[in-house]
Design goal:
The chain is α+β, with helices and mostly antiparallel strands. Helices cover 27% and strands 22% of the residues. It contains five helices and six strands. Strands 1, 2, 3, 4, 5 and 6 form a six-stranded antiparallel β-sheet that branches.
Length: 156
């Protein structure tokens, strides 16, 4: 009986150590190990957002922004562009842009971007998101500028 007791204690101690190894404690980073940057989704740049104008067709928007990450089959007039970036071992950031269409024409968009030509007049968008109206998208005198637009030569 006395020989069985140390063997039981030894087995119990080994099982405890093995279970501790399977715990959810975070493993400290190993120095010298390279961690890659992780990019996912559509790259969204401010120049792309500045190019958007109300009345653009879906094909023109796709030419500027690329293929949307998500087109909801129940809301085909809403396109979602999402981009996330996590530097090696760092914190993940995410940017989102939702475009809305009526009769296959761009009406407005929401998300983390806004046109640079029109700065917001107040700090009502503290969360980083706000809806952009078509009036905000249009700059003063854009009707004359539209004739000289880079989209003039594109016939979709």
């Amino acid at each position: 009986m006395q020989k069985a007791m140390p063997r039981t204690l030894l087995s119990l101690a080994a099982a405890t150590l093995l279970l501790a190894g399977c715990s959810s404690w975070s493993i400290p980073s190993i120095p010298g190990v390279y961690k890659i940057d992780i990019q996912q989704g559509n790259v969204i740049e401010q120049d792309m957002v500045d190019t958007l104008r109300p009345g653009m067709t879906k094909r023109q928007v796709r030419f500027v922004m690329g293929t949307p990450l998500l087109i909801d089959p129940f809301q085909p007039d809403r396109w979602d562009y999402v981009y996330s970036f996590q530097p090696g071992g760092g914190k993940r950031t995410q940017e989102q842009l939702a475009l809305f269409f009526e009769d296959d024409k761009l009406t407005h968009f929401t998300g983390h971007f806004r046109p640079t030509a029109n700065k917001p007049k107040d700090d009502s968008d503290k969360a980083g998101e706000r809806e952009v109206s078509p009036d905000e998208l249009m700059e003063e005198g854009t009707q004359e500028k539209e004739e000289e637009s880079s989209f003039q030569f594109l016939k979709f």
